[in-house]
Fold this sequence. Notes:
Helix 1 packs parallel to helix 3. The N terminus is likely disordered. This protein is α/β, with parallel strands linked by helices. It has two domains: 48 residues; 186 residues, Collagenase (Catalytic Domain). It contains ten helices and six strands, in the order αααααββααββαββαα. The N and C termini lie far apart (132 Å). Strands 1, 2, 3, 4, 5 and 6 form a six-stranded mixed beta sheet that branches.
Amino acid sequence: MIALSLCLVLGLCGGVAVTMTTEPDASAAVVAGAVEDSLGAEAGDAVRNAYEAARSGSRTSPPAPAVPPGADAAATASGSGAGSGSVGTKEPPEPSVAAVPFGEKSAPPRPGLGTSTSSELTPERGSGLIGARITVEPKLSGKLVVANGSRRAPAEGKVWRVQVAVEKGLPVDPEAFADAVLTTLNDPRGWNGADGSTFARTDSDRYDARVVLASPATTDKLCLPLDTAGSLSCGIEETAVLNFKRWATGSKAWANIAYYRQYLVNHEVGHVIGYHHDLCAGKGKHATIMVQQTLTTSGCVPEAWPAPNAD
């Protein structure tokens, strides 16, 4: 009986909520009276209380939606409309990397300027060359960079003060190149063993001899009136001009480029200190240092030193 009474009360309360919008007071009174006649004064009061609550708008707020498990505070704030132009909308997060279509591979990262290894930046001992792959540019600026540093001659004898310079733009460390040149000139098998010459290094303009490493075009210019044809070197007046093409690539007449470089230094400096060309003495014989040995040795065995048998 009690359960039936409660159902009737709830149904009538629903009727109040529906009919109150047209004739609220009359409808409520009729319903309350009917309930009171059927169920008693207490039930009638319940109807009247329900009507008053509906009339005054006293309703409880619906419960807030639960935050899904794992959702963070930032996503919740975005859903509240804070900092955006819409309320209650949640935009998907920006991807952290560019999207790549399915089945395709992203390109590998491009190497930056700082990816060179230390070995690629270290000058090669004996040449001063920098880099694993050397490109010979036929023409550069023509500006010469003098190698810094000075050093006394290591032996007694006729002292030649030598300045060393490298054309700007060549992949060569000037100081390392200068070390290679002076090491060759002052080797016991060098000119000191042949005629007593010894070589001091200087970076001043007060020099007796100068060794210049230059591009093919600059070599041609510095060697005038001699014709080096973009391929040869020269020793003229107080300057030995070494063609970078030969310094970097060597000569087919030589199996070992390091030996060829030693020949090139000794031969061209030989012109500067007063020596002229020799001829090959015969097939199979050792050439002297002043025999031309870049294009061909004319049947002679190549020789890099003025005094190859010196201690």
